[in-house]
Inverse folding.
């Protein structure tokens, strides 16, 4: 989230805390504390909050207003871009502001045309010729001013000459598609399932089964021995939401890194897309129900992290039912949630309704929440509900039928909660420079800190996966998610797993860096459970640095002598050696190296890399913004 919106979100939480102490606590605690029926508590809280909001000026206090195009804000963004463009080496940062200007500007305005023209100058800086021509075309389509046309024409002529002089084949003799990702290591095999897939769940290996008991609830178990590097699941998310700080860098629909070719949604200033196709798909699949409220929702529920994915889930579900809210009500009233899970669905012939059901039944932990926490979620969901009725076509659909309005609120509250505990961070790897202070740690992670190119992991989206969500947490995981560039997530075994053993992921944060008490506190506050994994049961600290000399020598030799994609097979072979044992209380350096290597190969982002891969011919007068 941008710093400005992040501050606003925290201000909203602070406002709720103030309202809770001054008014809401007194209204809510007494009628709920003696209520024997837990299912009625949310209804009581909702009733009291509705009565409170009936007279409370929440629009003014939260500074809520419709998201509209604003040429003045667009001009300010373009000016910030120009300042950065003038600073050598800040071209990518200037590009983000030019995209922001495009998103804010009115269609057909000179303001938008100039922003497209300035973006074409950045494209030229990186020899992005096709992208440069596309921005020039969009600038003209937006009524580029005649008084400045000469400079744009000269830029276009120069680019066309450059294209004629080049083969336009920049990688292994194959042309690179405009606005599309390409893997850092071309030709490396695409990840595929390592074993036979389920007949009705082709994205999951057959040997992984869903089990349920009183201790673990629903969880996944393997019926056969698994090796390090085995790919067990490759899944698309049901719903995903681009992080706020990525909004002018990536496509809001496919999340591809297309900052040189983004086009705006004409209904809001928040979303941009890599193509008209993605823009149309987003509008059809969910955006038409969220467009009018998205900017304000980032401000009021963005601090809840998963809350925005909850809104996206509801919008997508409404679209998938084609606005048939009565049919949806009937469907949910007859749905036996105990019999629904992602394993019982035939994914070969899955319907929109079937797909939604697998998300609808994800845990909410509603009964585990404190009265104040539940009240805060109901408070935010109630405000979002009101905004949806005020600003979107849902208001027309619900105004004559209270049952429809209730369904909309119930779904918002439900999926804000399911998203909070089932959300997964979608991340990518990017190159970075390692500080001297980090040298010791990177050496122990199996990477040579003297190498000029190192990598760090960055989150660019939040997503909800029906199957992935069935995997329980352990501070010492045995599987790891690898986010692929096409939007799917692959689940890979990160240590040998015995037949009958449960699969475990690690939730939320790098638990190896924290002591037991802090891990337990974070997990209980975020996910409402007490961790009872092997390390939390008997050890106070998890370290990846306790390597024996043989292992340290082997890992150093790999990182010193080979590229990542070349040392991976040797690393996997080493980790699968007969008799190798992985302590239940320790996440080993080899596992860290394995996961990082897989992510570098399959999750590598081009972010900030264009400066290294493309030069600039430096033609005077052609590459400057206006």
């Amino acid at each position: 989230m941008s710093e400005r919106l992040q501050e606003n979100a925290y201000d909203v939480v602070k406002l709720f805390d103030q309202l809770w102490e001054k008014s809401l606590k007194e209204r809510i605690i007494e009628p709920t504390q003696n209520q024997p029926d837990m299912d009625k508590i949310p209804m009581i809280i909702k009733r009291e909050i509705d009565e409170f909001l009936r007279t409370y000026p929440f629009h003014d206090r939260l500074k809520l207003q419709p998201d509209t195009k604003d040429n003045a804000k667009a001009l300010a963004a373009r000016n910030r871009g120009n300042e950065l463009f003038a600073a050598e080496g800040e071209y990518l940062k200037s590009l983000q502001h030019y995209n922001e200007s495009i998103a804010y500007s009115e269609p057909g305005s000179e303001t938008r045309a100039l922003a497209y023209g300035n973006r074409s100058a950045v494209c030229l800086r990186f020899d992005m010729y096709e992208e440069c021509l596309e921005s020039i075309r969009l600038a003209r389509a937006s009524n580029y001013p005649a008084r400045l046309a000469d400079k744009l024409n000269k830029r276009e002529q120069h680019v066309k000459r450059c294209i004629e002089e080049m083969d336009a084949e920049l990688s292994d003799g194959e042309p690179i598609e405009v606005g599309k990702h390409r893997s850092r290591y071309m030709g490396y095999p695409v990840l595929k399932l390592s074993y036979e897939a389920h007949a009705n769940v082709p994205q999951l290996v057959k040997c992984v089964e869903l089990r349920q008991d009183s201790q673990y609830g629903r969880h996944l178990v393997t019926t056969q021995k698994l090796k390090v590097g085995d790919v067990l699941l490759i899944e698309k998310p049901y719903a995903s939401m681009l992080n706020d700080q990525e909004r002018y860098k990536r496509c809001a629909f496919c999340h591809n890194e297309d900052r040189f070719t983004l086009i705006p949604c004409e209904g809001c200033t928040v979303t941009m897309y890599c193509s008209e196709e993605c823009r149309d798909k987003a509008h059809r699949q969910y955006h038409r129900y969220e467009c009018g409220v998205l900017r304000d929702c980032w401000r009021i529920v963005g601090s809840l992290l998963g809350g925005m994915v909850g809104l996206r889930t509801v919008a997508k579900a409404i679209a998938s039912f084609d606005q048939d809210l009565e049919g949806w009500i009937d469907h949910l009233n007859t749905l036996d949630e105990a019999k629904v899970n992602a394993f019982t669905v035939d994914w070969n012939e899955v319907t929109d309704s079937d797909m939604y059901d697998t998300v609808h039944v994800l845990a909410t932990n509603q009964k585990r929440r404190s009265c104040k926490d539940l009240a805060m979620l109901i408070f935010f969901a109630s405000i979002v509900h009101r905004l949806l009725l005020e600003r979107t076509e849902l208001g027309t659909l619900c105004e004559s039928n209270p049952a429809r309005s209730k369904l909309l609120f119930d779904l918002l509250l439900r999926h804000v909660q399911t998203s909070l505990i089932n959300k997964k961070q979608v991340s990518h790897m990017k190159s970075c420079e390692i500080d001297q202070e980090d040298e010791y740690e990177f050496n122990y992670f199996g990477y040579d800190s003297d190498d000029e190119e190192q990598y760090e992991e960055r989150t660019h989206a939040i997503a909800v996966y029906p199957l992935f969500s069935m995997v329980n947490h352990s501070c010492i995981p045995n599987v790891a998610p690898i986010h692929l560039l096409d939007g799917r997530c692959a689940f890979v075994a990160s240590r040998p797993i015995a037949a009958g053993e449960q699969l475990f992921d690690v939730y939320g944060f790098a638990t190896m860096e924290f002591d037991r008490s802090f891990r337990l506190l974070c997990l209980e506050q975020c996910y409402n459970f007490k961790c009872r994994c092997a390390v939390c049961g008997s050890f106070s600290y998890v370290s990846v640095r306790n390597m024996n000399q043989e292992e340290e020598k082997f890992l150093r030799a790999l990182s010193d002598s080979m590229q990542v994609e070349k040392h991976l097979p040797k690393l996997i072979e080493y980790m699968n050696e007969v008799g190798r044992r992985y302590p239940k209380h320790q996440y080993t350096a080899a596992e860290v190296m394995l996961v990082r290597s897989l992510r570098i190969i399959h999750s590598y982002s081009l972010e900030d890399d264009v400066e290294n891969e493309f030069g600039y011919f430096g033609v005077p007068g052609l590459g400057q913004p206006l």
